[in-house]
Amino acid sequence: MTQHGATPASPALIRSIGPFQLTLYGLGSMLGSGIYGLIGQAAGQVGNAVWASFLVAMVAALLTALSYASLGSRYPRAGGAAFVTQKAYGMPLLSFVVGLAVVCSGLASVATQSQVFAQNLAVLAGFASFPVWAAGAGFLLVMAALVLRGIRESMWVNVVFTLVEAAGLLLVIAVGIPYWGAVDLLEIPDAPGGDVAALLVMQGAVLTFFAFIGFEDTLNVAEECRDPQRTIPIALVTAMVIGALIYVAVAVTAVSVVPWRELSKAPGPLTEVMARAAPAISPWVFTAITLFAVANTALVNYITSSRLVYGMAQQKLLPSALGRVHQRSRTPHLAALTLLAILLPLGLFGTVANLASASVLLLLVVFAVVNGALFILKGRDGEPAGRFEVPRWVPAAGTVICLLLVGLRVSSSDWQAPALAGGLLVGILALYALLRPTRAMTSAAP
Predict the structure, then answer these.
(1) Where in the chain are the domains?
(2) Partner of 215 at 20 to 30 A CA spacing, among 9, 23, 118, 162?
(3) Which residues make beta-bridge pairs with 17?
(4) What sign for the dihedral angle of Cα 298, 302, 305, 311?
(5) 375 with 400: CB under 8 angstroms?
(6) 19-444 falls under which CATH superfamily?
(7) Cα(54)–Cα(201) distance, integer angstroms
(8) What is the sign of the dihedral through the CA atoms of 438, 439, 443 and 446?
(9) At residue 324, what are phi and psi to the nearest 5 degrees?
(10) Phi-psi region of 214 (alpha: psi -120 to 50; beta: other; left: phi over 0)
C-alpha cells in the first residue's frame, strides 16, 4: 500500500517539516504580504488607531485560519483547498476553479516579487543601467533551483529568510520604542470618537486584512509535514499570533515616530520611520532586508503553487504527469518546471500589479468556499474528526466575512481588478473544458 502521492513509478513526497519550520513558513508568507506599504495606507484611513485595525483584521482572518487548521488536521493533503472543496461539494468544476485560482495567486505573487527584487537590487548595487530583466530571470531560476533541490533545503532557506525579514520589522520596533507614549493612539481623522471611530477602524481592518494573507500556504505542504494533524494547527495559529503582535507593535511605532498624516504620504513608510528614529542606520540596510522579504515571499508561493499543482494532478484534476515526484530530490519536479515555464515570460514581460490585485480577489472567494467546505463536512456523518476541531459557527462566520470583503473590495476598487479576476475565471473555465477532468474525478466525489 503506497502513501499519498506514491505510485509504482513515482516515490512519495518526504515528510521532513516540523512545527518550527512550518510556523516560519506561514509567518514568512504573511510578513511579505504588503506590511511595508499597508502601514501608510491604513494610517491615512484610521490615523493613530491603525494598530486597532490590525487587531480587528487579525480576529477576522483568524476565523478562516482556524478553518484551515481544522481542515489540515482532518485532511492533510497537498491539494489543499482543491482537495477539501472536492471532498465537501463533490463538484470537479468548483474544485478545479478553486485550485487554479490559488495557483494564479501564487504565480502572480512570484512574478511580482521577481520584478521588485530586480528593481531593489539595481538600487542597492547603484547601477543606473542595471539589466533588470536579467536580474529578474536569474531570480526566478534561483527560486526554481531551490524548489527542485528538495523541501528540506527550501525550508531551511525559508527559515533564514523569515528570521531576517522579521529582524527588519523588529529593528523598526526597537528604534521606535523610545517614542511610544508620545501620541494619542486613539486619534483618528476628523472624528471625535464613538460610532464614527468604530467605523473608521473597521474600514482600516478591511485594508489590513490583506497583511494576514499567506497563512493558507501551510495547508499545501501537509504531505511533507511530520505528524501533520498536530503540526498544521500549531504552526498556523502560532504564525497568526506572532504576525499580529509584530504588526500591532510596528503600527504603534510608526505613528509614534512619524505623524500619521505624513506617514500616509510617505513613499516608503517604514523607511521614513527608520530615517527619523535611527538616522545613523544606512537606508541600504533596510533595502537589503527588503530583498530577503521579497525572495522569501516568492519562495513560499513557488513551493505552495508546485504542491497544489501536484495535489490536483493526484486528484486527476490536472494531467497525471504533473503528479510525479523526483526519485532523488522527492519534489514534484514536473509541476515546478511547468510553473517556471509560465513564470519566466510573466515575470519578464508582464505587467503583474493588476494581476496580483485580481488574484487576491479570487483568493477571498476561495476562502469563502473553503470555510463553507468545513461547515458542510462538520455536519456530514462518517467524516473523520481531526485533532483540532472548531465550533461550526467559526467556518460560518469566516464565510460571511470573506464574502463581505469581496463585496467591499469590488465596490471600492476600480474596474481593472474585478475585470481581470473575471478574465482569469474565464481562462480557468476554458482550461477545464479542454482537460475535461469530470469523469476522472467521479470516483473521488464524496
Answers:
(1) 19-444
(2) 118
(3) 225
(4) negative
(5) no
(6) Amino acid/polyamine transporter I (1.20.1740.10)
(7) 9
(8) positive
(9) -75, 150
(10) left
Sign of CA dihedral 342, 332, 90, 408: negative
Q: Cell 509541476 sits at which residue?
A: 335
**pLDDT tens, the chain, 446 aa long:** 344 555 555 678 889 999 999 999 999 999 875 677 788 888 888 888 899 989 988 988 999 999 999 999 999 888 889 999 999 998 999 999 999 999 998 898 888 888 888 888 877 776 666 677 888 899 999 999 999 999 999 999 999 999 999 999 999 999 999 999 888 888 888 755 445 667 777 777 877 888 888 888 999 999 999 999 999 999 999 999 999 999 999 999 999 999 989 988 887 888 889 989 999 988 888 888 888 998 999 999 999 999 999 999 998 999 999 999 998 999 999 999 999 999 998 877 766 666 777 778 888 899 999 999 999 999 888 888 888 999 999 999 999 999 988 887 777 666 777 888 888 899 999 999 998 876 544 333 43
Q: Which of 256, 254, 258, 219 is nearest to 236 (CA)?
A: 219
Q: Give the closest residue to 406 by CA, choosing from 372, 371, 366, 373.
A: 366
Total-model pTM: 0.90
| Cell numbers for 376 | 458542510
